[in-house]
Amino acid sequence: MIFYLIVLILILLYYFFMAPKTIKNTLNPLVMVGIVVCLMIALVFGVVTFFDMSGEFYVSLAMTLLGFWAVRDMLKMPTKKQKQSKDLIE
């Protein structure tokens, strides 16, 4: 493991200080692809960690969403106009 880390550092040092312009132009897309792959791996690990949580978490999440939708639906309900009684007018 340490060997590969040393090789990686040497390659990066070569890239920054010794590589000609044509190699730098070729390595830039490769670095971008490597960054995207690392981000995708981190996303997969995050999803796996999320699904490893206990069942109570999912139940509470579902109850919160249902409560939010219920409150939103109640706020969207039309209100009835109240008829004024004759006692209030006089």
Radius of gyration from the alpha-carbon trace, in angstroms:
31 Å
Approximately what portion of the residues adopt beta-strand conformation?
Answer: under 5%
Give the averaged pLDDT, no decimals. Answer: 85
Number of extended strands? 0
**N- to C-terminal distance:** 92 Å
Summing up helix and strand content along with how strands pair, one would put the structural category as: mainly alpha
Please explain how this structure is put together:
By secondary structure, the protein is mainly α. It has one domain. The chain is built from four helices and no strands. The protein has helices at residues 2-17, 21-51, 55-76, 86-89. The mean pLDDT is 85.
In short:
This protein is mainly α. Helix content is 81%, strand content 0%. It has one domain.
Keywords:
single chain; 90 residues; mainly alpha
Topology:
Elements: H1 2-17, H2 21-51, H3 55-76, H4 86-89
